[in-house]
Amino acid sequence: MITRKNAEISKFIIHKVGNKFNDTKNAFSDKTVEFDEASYELMLPFLLRPFGSVVQSYRFNHHANITLNEINSYSAQMFNDEEAFVEVSKHIVTHLYEQSSSAQIKTGDVLIVMFEGIEFRDITTNAIGIFKIESKVNFFQTYLENNSYDVLVQNGISSKKVDKGCLILNQSDGEGNIILSVDNNSYDAAYWLNHFLNIKYADDANNHTQQYIELLKDFSTDVLKPNYGAKEQNTFLAKSIDFFKENEIVNIERFKDELFEEDKHKKEFDSYKKEFEGEQSYIIRNQFDVAEAVVTKEKRKIKTDIKLDTNIQIKLDIDAPDASEEYLERGYDEEKKMHYYKVFFNEEA
Question: Which of 119, 193, 216, 217 is the most buried (most CB within 10 A)?
Answer without folding.
Answer: 216
